[in-house]
Amino acid sequence: MHEINSLLSDGRLAKQSVRGPWQNIAKIGKKFLDFGIELYETFVRKVGTGHSTRFWLDVWLGKFTLKDIFPNLYKVAVKKTCLVRDLVSFGSALVFANIEWSKSNLSPEESSDLNDLKDMVTLFSFNEGKEDGWRWTGDSSGKFTVQEMRRIMADSIHGDDVQICGWETWVPIKINCFVWRLLQNKIPVTPNLIARGMPLLSSNCRVCALEVESTKHVFLDCTQAKAIWRLISLWRLISL
User: Fold this and answer.
1) Please, what is the average pLDDT of the chain?
2) pTM score
């Protein structure tokens, strides 16, 4: 993720106008909203020297940008894209530099906000001497893992105590992926194809033509599926 800073835009990890892998990542972020997950908000800046973290526009103090926490101050700030290092310096003590404003005197409300802002910055724990980086809020370690993201997605749908499916290492990856898609109803059965705008003459099962070709019908209720399950039960001596 070391190239991510050049792609930032208003706290976003990537701009969809940027071509290449990050464009696809930006688009994927929208799909996480189906699980109630705002992907961009799960990553926050871990500030060290402040050389690559934007003061107002990046999430580094709490869960929101300072632009959103102090909108009145951001409105009158002259340098809206300044970096943390431009306003904070380290020495024997942390020094919060003067911010350049677009007007000579701040209002009482703005002055109060400025005092609150200074308190927040002063109390923040900087990783002095280290480069800025990213921290994922989905795990206490701060490191992103696919396994943990899958768990969060499963919890958002079924609750904390239900697991969508186990990711078995002895099963081929394509089988694991297929089962995952199956349980998410993401396989190309006719209702899903029609929902995507694909013109079809009928939504019935293309094998038995007796019922709508739902995911459940294809794998459990279709006459052909039942015959396959029956053979499997005889092979493995399982009672259906």
Assistant:
1) 78
2) 0.53
